[in-house]
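Friendly challenge for the regulars: who can give me the structure tokens for this chain first? No prize, just bragging rights.
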Amino acid sequence: MPTIYLRKDLFDKIVSMGKEVNSFVNKVVEETLKQTEAPGKEEEIPRTKSKSRPSKGGQSNG
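First reply, four minutes later:
Bragging rights claimed.
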């Protein structure tokens, strides 16, 4: 893989933008976790009903 040389101002800009993106993602994740962990919020989250299937093995019919 070739080495890419950047001017310091371009490198600093890329690093700054990366930090902004990281900060935004962390903020969104934190807010989402707070919303899903809040008491009483479980009922408001739409959930899909899964069909129960017997597990393979470990069960005896006797």
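The chain has a mean pLDDT of 81. Residues 8-37 form the longest helix (30 residues). Your move, everyone else.
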